[in-house]
Amino acid sequence: MTQLTRRSALALPLVPLLAGAAAAQQPAWPTRAVSIVVAFAPGGAADVIARILAQRLSEQLGQAVVVDNRVGGGGTISAATVARAAPDAHTVLLLTSAHAVNESLAKNRGYELERDLTPVVQFAATPYWLLVPPDRPTTLAGLLELAKKQPVTFASGGPGGLTHLLGEMLKQETKLDLIHVPYRGNAPAVNDLMAGRVDMLFDNTGTVLEYVKAGKLRVLASTSPQRLAATPDVPTMLELGFKDFNVSAWLGLAVPAGTDPALVRRLYEEVAKAMNEPAVRNRLISVGAEPALKGPADFQALVKSEIPRWGAVIQAGGITAE
Protein backbone atom coordinates (compact mmCIF):
# COMPACT_ATOMS: atom_id res chain seq x y z
CA MET A 1 0.00 0.00 0.00
CA THR A 2 1.40 3.33 -1.05
CA GLN A 3 1.76 5.67 1.90
CA LEU A 4 0.70 9.30 1.84
CA THR A 5 3.97 10.91 2.79
CA ARG A 6 5.11 14.45 3.49
CA ARG A 7 7.11 14.32 0.26
CA SER A 8 4.08 13.40 -1.85
CA ALA A 9 1.94 16.00 -0.11
CA LEU A 10 4.48 18.66 -0.95
CA ALA A 11 4.70 17.58 -4.56
CA LEU A 12 1.61 19.46 -5.67
CA PRO A 13 1.79 20.56 -9.29
CA LEU A 14 2.84 24.12 -9.87
CA VAL A 15 0.02 26.23 -11.22
CA PRO A 16 0.87 28.60 -14.06
CA LEU A 17 0.15 32.19 -13.15
CA LEU A 18 -0.76 35.05 -15.40
CA ALA A 19 2.13 37.30 -16.37
CA GLY A 20 2.96 40.23 -18.60
CA ALA A 21 0.04 41.48 -20.67
CA ALA A 22 -2.35 38.94 -19.14
CA ALA A 23 -1.59 40.22 -15.64
CA ALA A 24 -2.50 43.72 -16.73
CA GLN A 25 -6.01 42.49 -17.54
CA GLN A 26 -6.65 41.15 -14.05
CA PRO A 27 -9.56 42.79 -12.21
CA ALA A 28 -8.71 45.43 -9.61
CA TRP A 29 -9.02 43.25 -6.52
CA PRO A 30 -8.84 43.53 -3.62
CA THR A 31 -9.57 47.20 -3.08
CA ARG A 32 -10.06 46.79 0.68
CA ALA A 33 -9.69 44.11 3.36
CA VAL A 34 -10.91 40.62 2.49
CA SER A 35 -12.86 38.64 5.11
CA ILE A 36 -12.78 34.85 5.25
CA VAL A 37 -15.94 33.90 7.16
CA VAL A 38 -15.40 30.78 9.27
CA ALA A 39 -18.18 28.73 10.87
CA PHE A 40 -16.03 27.53 13.76
CA ALA A 41 -14.66 29.11 16.92
CA PRO A 42 -11.17 30.62 17.15
CA GLY A 43 -8.52 28.02 17.92
CA GLY A 44 -10.31 25.10 16.31
CA ALA A 45 -8.77 23.13 13.45
CA ALA A 46 -10.72 24.88 10.67
CA ASP A 47 -9.97 28.31 12.16
CA VAL A 48 -6.24 27.56 12.38
CA ILE A 49 -6.17 26.29 8.79
CA ALA A 50 -8.03 29.39 7.56
CA ARG A 51 -5.56 31.66 9.34
CA ILE A 52 -2.58 29.93 7.72
CA LEU A 53 -4.03 30.70 4.29
CA ALA A 54 -5.18 34.21 5.26
CA GLN A 55 -1.70 35.19 6.42
CA ARG A 56 -0.12 34.12 3.15
CA LEU A 57 -2.82 35.81 1.03
CA SER A 58 -2.30 39.04 2.97
CA GLU A 59 1.39 38.94 2.10
CA GLN A 60 0.71 38.25 -1.58
CA LEU A 61 -2.05 40.79 -2.05
CA GLY A 62 -0.62 43.61 0.05
CA GLN A 63 -4.05 43.92 1.64
CA ALA A 64 -5.43 42.63 4.93
CA VAL A 65 -7.10 39.21 4.76
CA VAL A 66 -8.86 38.59 8.06
CA VAL A 67 -10.74 35.66 9.56
CA ASP A 68 -14.29 36.47 10.67
CA ASN A 69 -15.66 33.76 12.99
CA ARG A 70 -19.45 33.45 12.61
CA VAL A 71 -20.25 30.49 14.84
CA GLY A 72 -23.71 28.95 15.13
CA GLY A 73 -26.41 27.11 13.29
CA GLY A 74 -24.06 24.25 12.48
CA GLY A 75 -22.38 26.44 9.89
CA THR A 76 -25.50 28.01 8.41
CA ILE A 77 -24.82 31.47 9.87
CA SER A 78 -21.45 31.69 8.15
CA ALA A 79 -22.81 30.55 4.80
CA ALA A 80 -25.85 32.84 4.97
CA THR A 81 -23.55 35.78 5.78
CA VAL A 82 -21.54 35.25 2.61
CA ALA A 83 -24.57 34.40 0.46
CA ARG A 84 -26.01 37.85 1.34
CA ALA A 85 -22.74 39.73 0.80
CA ALA A 86 -21.88 41.82 -2.24
CA PRO A 87 -20.57 39.58 -5.07
CA ASP A 88 -17.17 41.29 -5.19
CA ALA A 89 -14.93 38.62 -3.60
CA HIS A 90 -14.23 40.73 -0.51
CA THR A 91 -16.40 38.48 1.69
CA VAL A 92 -15.41 34.85 1.23
CA LEU A 93 -16.67 31.69 2.93
CA LEU A 94 -14.44 28.96 4.32
CA LEU A 95 -16.57 26.26 2.69
CA THR A 96 -16.33 22.90 4.47
CA SER A 97 -17.90 19.47 4.44
CA ALA A 98 -20.27 20.68 7.15
CA HIS A 99 -21.97 22.98 4.66
CA ALA A 100 -22.64 20.06 2.30
CA VAL A 101 -24.11 18.09 5.21
CA ASN A 102 -26.34 21.02 6.16
CA GLU A 103 -28.14 20.90 2.83
CA SER A 104 -29.91 17.77 4.10
CA LEU A 105 -29.79 18.44 7.84
CA ALA A 106 -30.44 22.12 8.56
CA LYS A 107 -33.86 23.56 7.82
CA ASN A 108 -34.60 27.26 7.29
CA ARG A 109 -30.99 27.99 6.35
CA GLY A 110 -31.83 31.19 4.50
CA TYR A 111 -29.75 30.10 1.50
CA GLU A 112 -29.21 27.19 -0.90
CA LEU A 113 -25.58 26.24 -1.31
CA GLU A 114 -25.66 25.48 -5.04
CA ARG A 115 -27.88 28.47 -5.83
CA ASP A 116 -26.40 31.17 -3.63
CA LEU A 117 -22.70 30.34 -3.39
CA THR A 118 -19.95 29.62 -5.91
CA PRO A 119 -17.20 27.22 -4.78
CA VAL A 120 -13.85 28.60 -5.98
CA VAL A 121 -11.01 26.44 -4.70
CA GLN A 122 -10.34 23.55 -2.36
CA PHE A 123 -6.97 23.86 -0.67
CA ALA A 124 -6.92 21.32 2.19
CA ALA A 125 -8.46 18.13 3.53
CA THR A 126 -8.29 16.38 6.88
CA PRO A 127 -8.84 12.61 7.02
CA TYR A 128 -10.30 10.80 10.02
CA TRP A 129 -9.07 8.07 12.32
CA LEU A 130 -11.25 5.44 13.97
CA LEU A 131 -10.05 5.57 17.57
CA VAL A 132 -10.53 3.42 20.67
CA PRO A 133 -9.18 3.47 24.24
CA PRO A 134 -6.02 1.41 24.75
CA ASP A 135 -7.87 -1.43 26.51
CA ARG A 136 -10.31 -2.11 23.64
CA PRO A 137 -9.75 -4.60 20.78
CA THR A 138 -6.65 -3.92 18.71
CA THR A 139 -8.37 -4.38 15.33
CA LEU A 140 -11.58 -3.18 13.76
CA ALA A 141 -12.61 -6.80 13.19
CA GLY A 142 -12.18 -7.43 16.91
CA LEU A 143 -14.23 -4.38 17.82
CA LEU A 144 -17.07 -5.39 15.51
CA GLU A 145 -16.99 -8.92 16.90
CA LEU A 146 -17.33 -7.43 20.37
CA ALA A 147 -20.36 -5.45 19.17
CA LYS A 148 -22.09 -8.73 18.31
CA LYS A 149 -21.82 -9.83 21.95
CA GLN A 150 -22.41 -6.65 23.94
CA PRO A 151 -23.42 -3.00 23.46
CA VAL A 152 -20.70 -0.90 21.81
CA THR A 153 -20.92 2.89 21.83
CA PHE A 154 -19.55 5.48 19.43
CA ALA A 155 -19.05 9.09 20.48
CA SER A 156 -19.46 12.18 18.33
CA GLY A 157 -18.96 15.90 18.63
CA GLY A 158 -22.71 16.43 18.16
CA PRO A 159 -25.66 15.27 16.08
CA GLY A 160 -25.19 15.57 12.33
CA GLY A 161 -21.46 16.28 12.31
CA LEU A 162 -19.06 14.09 10.37
CA THR A 163 -17.94 12.38 13.57
CA HIS A 164 -21.58 11.29 13.93
CA LEU A 165 -22.19 10.46 10.26
CA LEU A 166 -19.07 8.29 10.01
CA GLY A 167 -20.23 6.24 12.99
CA GLU A 168 -23.66 6.01 11.40
CA MET A 169 -22.09 4.85 8.12
CA LEU A 170 -20.28 2.07 9.98
CA LYS A 171 -23.50 1.13 11.75
CA GLN A 172 -25.45 1.01 8.47
CA GLU A 173 -22.79 -0.96 6.60
CA THR A 174 -22.22 -3.57 9.34
CA LYS A 175 -25.90 -3.70 10.39
CA LEU A 176 -24.76 -3.72 14.01
CA ASP A 177 -26.61 -1.87 16.74
CA LEU A 178 -23.85 0.62 17.54
CA ILE A 179 -25.06 3.15 20.12
CA HIS A 180 -24.51 6.85 19.40
CA VAL A 181 -23.38 9.03 22.32
CA PRO A 182 -23.40 12.71 21.24
CA TYR A 183 -21.34 15.36 23.01
CA ARG A 184 -21.28 19.14 22.81
CA GLY A 185 -18.08 19.33 20.82
CA ASN A 186 -15.24 16.95 20.05
CA ALA A 187 -13.09 17.80 23.08
CA PRO A 188 -15.40 16.25 25.69
CA ALA A 189 -15.95 13.26 23.40
CA VAL A 190 -12.18 12.69 23.19
CA ASN A 191 -11.83 13.07 26.97
CA ASP A 192 -14.47 10.42 27.63
CA LEU A 193 -12.93 8.13 25.01
CA MET A 194 -9.55 8.32 26.74
CA ALA A 195 -11.30 7.59 30.04
CA GLY A 196 -12.96 4.52 28.52
CA ARG A 197 -16.51 5.79 29.03
CA VAL A 198 -17.26 5.22 25.32
CA ASP A 199 -15.88 2.60 22.97
CA MET A 200 -14.92 4.41 19.78
CA LEU A 201 -14.84 7.72 17.92
CA PHE A 202 -14.08 8.95 14.43
CA ASP A 203 -12.07 12.18 14.66
CA ASN A 204 -9.75 14.35 12.58
CA THR A 205 -6.17 13.18 12.63
CA GLY A 206 -4.78 16.56 13.64
CA THR A 207 -7.16 16.88 16.59
CA VAL A 208 -6.01 13.71 18.34
CA LEU A 209 -2.45 13.15 17.08
CA GLU A 210 -0.85 14.06 20.42
CA TYR A 211 -3.02 11.54 22.28
CA VAL A 212 -2.18 8.80 19.80
CA LYS A 213 1.54 9.51 20.13
CA ALA A 214 1.22 9.44 23.94
CA GLY A 215 -0.50 6.05 23.86
CA LYS A 216 -3.73 7.41 25.30
CA LEU A 217 -5.70 6.38 22.20
CA ARG A 218 -5.28 3.61 19.65
CA VAL A 219 -5.97 4.00 15.93
CA LEU A 220 -7.75 1.05 14.29
CA ALA A 221 -8.19 2.50 10.79
CA SER A 222 -8.05 5.69 8.75
CA THR A 223 -10.62 7.03 6.30
CA SER A 224 -7.92 8.29 3.92
CA PRO A 225 -7.48 6.76 0.45
CA GLN A 226 -3.94 5.68 1.39
CA ARG A 227 -2.15 4.90 4.63
CA LEU A 228 -0.96 7.98 6.48
CA ALA A 229 2.68 8.75 7.20
CA ALA A 230 1.88 9.31 10.89
CA THR A 231 0.51 5.76 11.21
CA PRO A 232 2.01 3.64 8.41
CA ASP A 233 1.00 0.37 10.10
CA VAL A 234 -2.66 1.37 10.38
CA PRO A 235 -4.88 0.12 7.54
CA THR A 236 -7.40 2.25 5.72
CA MET A 237 -11.11 1.53 5.91
CA LEU A 238 -10.92 0.83 2.17
CA GLU A 239 -8.31 -1.87 2.78
CA LEU A 240 -10.59 -3.44 5.35
CA GLY A 241 -13.39 -3.76 2.80
CA PHE A 242 -15.47 -0.65 3.57
CA LYS A 243 -15.75 0.71 0.04
CA ASP A 244 -17.58 3.94 0.93
CA PHE A 245 -15.10 5.04 3.58
CA ASN A 246 -12.86 7.30 1.51
CA VAL A 247 -13.76 10.34 3.60
CA SER A 248 -11.98 13.57 4.44
CA ALA A 249 -13.25 16.84 5.80
CA TRP A 250 -12.44 19.20 2.92
CA LEU A 251 -11.86 22.92 3.17
CA GLY A 252 -12.01 25.54 0.46
CA LEU A 253 -13.25 29.01 -0.40
CA ALA A 254 -16.57 30.11 -1.89
CA VAL A 255 -17.95 33.49 -2.93
CA PRO A 256 -21.50 34.80 -3.38
CA ALA A 257 -23.27 33.64 -6.53
CA GLY A 258 -23.04 36.23 -9.27
CA THR A 259 -19.41 37.07 -8.58
CA ASP A 260 -17.58 38.05 -11.78
CA PRO A 261 -15.87 34.93 -13.23
CA ALA A 262 -12.69 36.98 -13.58
CA LEU A 263 -12.71 37.52 -9.81
CA VAL A 264 -13.37 33.83 -9.22
CA ARG A 265 -10.38 33.01 -11.38
CA ARG A 266 -8.21 35.61 -9.65
CA LEU A 267 -9.05 34.27 -6.19
CA TYR A 268 -8.29 30.72 -7.32
CA GLU A 269 -4.95 31.78 -8.76
CA GLU A 270 -3.95 33.58 -5.58
CA VAL A 271 -4.79 30.54 -3.45
CA ALA A 272 -2.93 28.29 -5.91
CA LYS A 273 0.09 30.59 -5.64
CA ALA A 274 -0.07 30.38 -1.85
CA MET A 275 -0.31 26.60 -1.99
CA ASN A 276 2.85 26.47 -4.11
CA GLU A 277 4.76 27.80 -1.09
CA PRO A 278 6.47 24.98 0.86
CA ALA A 279 6.12 26.99 4.09
CA VAL A 280 2.33 27.09 3.69
CA ARG A 281 2.08 23.39 2.91
CA ASN A 282 4.36 22.51 5.81
CA ARG A 283 2.25 24.55 8.21
CA LEU A 284 -0.91 22.82 7.02
CA ILE A 285 0.69 19.40 7.45
CA SER A 286 1.86 20.36 10.96
CA VAL A 287 -1.77 20.88 12.07
CA GLY A 288 -3.00 17.63 10.54
CA ALA A 289 -4.26 18.90 7.19
CA GLU A 290 -3.29 17.53 3.79
CA PRO A 291 -2.71 20.10 1.01
CA ALA A 292 -5.30 19.35 -1.68
CA LEU A 293 -5.76 21.76 -4.57
CA LYS A 294 -8.88 21.75 -6.75
CA GLY A 295 -9.93 24.55 -9.09
CA PRO A 296 -13.45 25.92 -9.54
CA ALA A 297 -14.86 23.20 -11.81
CA ASP A 298 -13.45 20.28 -9.81
CA PHE A 299 -14.35 21.81 -6.46
CA GLN A 300 -17.89 22.55 -7.60
CA ALA A 301 -18.22 18.94 -8.77
CA LEU A 302 -16.98 17.70 -5.37
CA VAL A 303 -19.48 19.84 -3.47
CA LYS A 304 -22.30 18.74 -5.77
CA SER A 305 -21.47 15.07 -5.18
CA GLU A 306 -21.12 15.41 -1.41
CA ILE A 307 -24.62 16.81 -0.87
CA PRO A 308 -26.51 13.63 -1.91
CA ARG A 309 -23.83 11.40 -0.38
CA TRP A 310 -24.42 12.71 3.12
CA GLY A 311 -28.12 13.17 2.46
CA ALA A 312 -28.45 9.42 1.93
CA VAL A 313 -26.69 8.65 5.25
CA ILE A 314 -28.87 11.18 7.07
CA GLN A 315 -32.08 9.82 5.58
CA ALA A 316 -31.20 6.16 6.21
CA GLY A 317 -30.32 6.91 9.83
CA GLY A 318 -33.29 9.20 10.50
CA ILE A 319 -30.77 11.80 11.72
CA THR A 320 -31.80 15.28 12.81
CA ALA A 321 -29.79 18.23 14.06
CA GLU A 322 -31.38 17.97 17.51
Characterize the structure shown.
With 322 residues, the chain is of the alpha/beta class. It folds into two domains: 3-126 and 249-317, D-Maltodextrin-Binding Protein, domain 2; 128-228, 3-Layer(aba) Sandwich (D-Maltodextrin-Binding Protein, domain 2), CATH 3.40.190.10. Helices cover 41% and strands 21% of the residues. It is built from 13 helices and twelve strands. It has helices spanning 6-10, 21-24, 45-61, 76-83, 97-105, 113-116, 140-147, 162-174, 186-194, 205-213, 261-275, 278-286, 296-317; strands spanning 3-4, 34-38, 65-69, 91-96, 117-132, 153-156, 179-182, 200-204, 218-222, 227-228, 248-256, 290-294. Strands 2, 3, 4, 5, 6, 7, 8, 9, 11 and 12 form a ten-stranded mixed β-sheet that branches. The protein has a two-stranded parallel sheet with strand order 1-10. Strand 6 (153-156), helix 8 (162-174) and strand 7 (179-182) form a beta-alpha-beta unit. Helix 3 (45-61) packs across helix 11 (261-275), helix 5 (97-105) packs across helix 13 and helix 8 (162-174) crosses helix 13 (296-317). The longest helix is centred in the last third of the chain and has 22 residues, at 296-317. It is globular. The protein starts with a strand and ends in a 5-residue tail after the last helix.
